[in-house]
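Fold Annotation — chain and its backbone

Fields — amino acid sequence, structure tokens

___
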Amino acid sequence: MKQVVIIPVIRKENDDMYTTETVSHFINNGAEVWMDVKHSTMQYANGAKFACGDDLYKNCDLIVVLGGDGSILRAAEKALTVDVPILGVNLGRLGYMAELEKDELHLINNIYKGKYRVEERMVLSIDVCRDGETFPIRDALNDVVINRGGYTRSIDIDLYADGKSVRTIRADGLILSTPTGSTAYSMSAGGSVLDPTLECICATPICPSSRYACPIVFSGNSTLTVIHSDDRNESWNVTIDGEGVTPLRCGEELIIRRSEKYVKMLSLKDEGFFETLNNKISKYELKK
């Protein structure tokens, strides 16, 4: 990891201190650290080089994100493009996607001892079928959420798998998540927690009318189709990884399948996924 891009999200007291420590660990191991030019006057960026836009990621070997899961998701889109791994440092709250906590920054040194592994995480490809034509929207590392928008009643969502009807779900919406995204909105809505190294798609209804409308886990090879045929509500909202809103109008279809791309996540610790998950939840609940 000779050329490292560091993306700090400085929002709270001491975030700059953790950024300084992160930069120092990489520079002390002989790495060339790059940051966006907007950080060039900041003390925590001492020793770094600067660029902007796509130039920042030229020839980089690793993207390091200091922030919460939202920051990591935004960086994942760029990591997909340049095909390099991400290392997340949790400066947020739960930080399910982050590998390191603030008191674990010394583990960065393990990268240069060869004590790391790279996990490939499944990504969803999202298309919309409109007027007989199919248009790509974007890829999702976490989830795609279909909801009722400004409509105040439940909506009827027609869900198909590989062209065959699964069921019509009457609910406030539907979450289609990757295993990585199973600990996000899907878990809050009662969805299954999945090992992030699996390849599958979890469909979790949001506030369903029927108690039998339980989450369903589909094979990663499945192509799922959501059809908007509920003429009581002209337009639904589609949100991908919590960013932006794409309208899905009556008569249109949303197509969700496994992408050919994978997001690569750098892992530096030996503890398993479920141990990490339980530790993060316990620490968060004790803070309340």
About this structure: The chain has two domains: 3-116+268-287, 123-260. Residues 123-260 form a domain with the Tumour Suppressor Smad4 fold (CATH 2.60.200.30).
